[in-house]
């Protein structure tokens, strides 16, 4: 039987339900019905309450810790596979565990590689994600990966600010490639922070490579976790004579004392996407929705159309 091109079903994981609803609205559809049964010990079981036989299924959910979020995505994909879905596309705005993309010391896992294999084993035939922590994670998959860039959201916003003396900054050496890509589009200068860590999430020393005197600085990163690096970088730049410091970070993990650090910092504004829902509101945090970006790419995937127009960088 030949199915029409619009014959897709969209489902949302509970941890990303608000974003899934927004994506479905931009897609021009409603989310499918999923029922969750929960046992006393916390074990849960999803159940699709409508037929998906022969359909393309989009399952929308970020996989930030806790591991229950990843498990929910896996169980839903396995259920779709066993319900005879034709294609199962995992829409993962934030790909969790991505910081484990290599062995940086002996006897540690490459967690991102393991997660990629688990997703494929559960039934994923395609992955759509955004701003991976490391580009090479795409190569961990044997299935197609559409790696979207939040720059298509951030760059128009930065242009709307009409900032004079704009300088793009990377909060660490690893993000310099991203900073240079933004600077090329915005025709601005670049500075880089060099940091030394005492241990994970703890910075012992930070130096600034470049001049920020009299500049409106925008720090660029793929995620903000404890906000220690960003707030430290903002303080250093203001000490070095910057006019203002903003930050754009795709994924707002914001754990530990992140909200407190941001409120107490010299950051004028932190701009993030809704790939991860905020745990609390802050006057310093502005959220740009990625729903339209994902919905457009999902429509193109469903209709076998090119998605190259969705990329700025």
From TrEMBL:
InterPro entries: PRib_PP_synth_CS (IPR000842), Pribosyltran_N (IPR029099), PRTase-like (IPR029057), PRTase_dom (IPR000836), Rib-P_diPkinase (IPR005946). SMART domains: Pribosyltran_N (SM01400). Residues 9-123 form the Ribose-phosphate pyrophosphokinase N-terminal domain. The keyword Nucleus does not apply. Its EC number is 2.7.6.1. GO terms for biological process: 5-phosphoribose 1-diphosphate biosynthetic process; purine nucleotide biosynthetic process; ribonucleoside monophosphate biosynthetic process. PROSITE patterns: PRPP_SYNTHASE (PS00114). Keywords: ATP-binding, Cytoplasm, Kinase, Magnesium, Metal-binding, Nucleotide biosynthesis, Nucleotide-binding, Transferase. It catalyses: D-ribose 5-phosphate + ATP = 5-phospho-alpha-D-ribose 1-diphosphate + AMP + H(+). GO terms for cellular component: cytoplasm; ribose phosphate diphosphokinase complex. One of its GO terms (molecular function) is kinase activity. PANTHER family: RIBOSE-PHOSPHATE DIPHOSPHOKINASE FAMILY MEMBER, RIBOSE-PHOSPHATE PYROPHOSPHOKINASE 1, CHLOROPLASTIC. This is ribose-phosphate diphosphokinase.
């Amino acid at each position: 039987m030949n199915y029409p091109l619009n014959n897709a079903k969209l489902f949302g994981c509970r941890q990303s339900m608000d974003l899934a609803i927004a994506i479905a609205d931009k897609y021009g559809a409603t989310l499918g019905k999923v029922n969750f049964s929960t046992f006393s010990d916390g074990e849960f079981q999803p159940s699709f309450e409508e037929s998906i036989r022969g359909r393309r299924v989009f399952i929308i959910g970020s996989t930030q810790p806790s591991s229950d979020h990843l498990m929910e995505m896996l169980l839903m994909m396995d259920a779709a596979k066993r319900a005879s879905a034709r294609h199962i596309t995992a829409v993962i705005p934030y790909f969790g565990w991505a910081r484990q993309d290599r062995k940086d010391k002996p006897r540690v896992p490459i967690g991102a590689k393991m997660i990629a294999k688990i997703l494929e084993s559960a039934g994923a035939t395609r992955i759509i994600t955004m701003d991976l922590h490391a580009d090479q994670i795409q190569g961990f998959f044997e299935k197609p990966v559409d790696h979207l860039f939040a720059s298509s959201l951030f760059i128009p916003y930065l242009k709307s600010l009409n900032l004079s003396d704009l300088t793009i900054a990377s909060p660490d050496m690893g993000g310099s490639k991203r900073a240079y890509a933004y600077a090329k589009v915005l025709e601005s200068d670049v500075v880089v922070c060099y940091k030394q860590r005492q241990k994970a999430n703890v910075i012992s020393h930070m130096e600034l490579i470049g001049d920020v005197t009299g500049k409106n600085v925008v720090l660029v990163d793929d995620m903000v976790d404890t906000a220690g690096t960003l707030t430290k970088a903002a303080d250093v730049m203001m000490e070095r004579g910057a006019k203002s410091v903003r930050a754009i970070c795709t994924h707002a993990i914001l754990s530990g004392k992140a909200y407190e650090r941001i409120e107490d910092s010299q950051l004028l504004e932190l701009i993030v996407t809704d790939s991860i829902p905020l745990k609390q509101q802050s006057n310093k945090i502005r959220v740009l929705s990625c729903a339209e970006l994902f919905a457009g790419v999902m429509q193109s995937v469903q209709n076998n159309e090119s998605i190259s127009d969705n990329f700025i960088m």
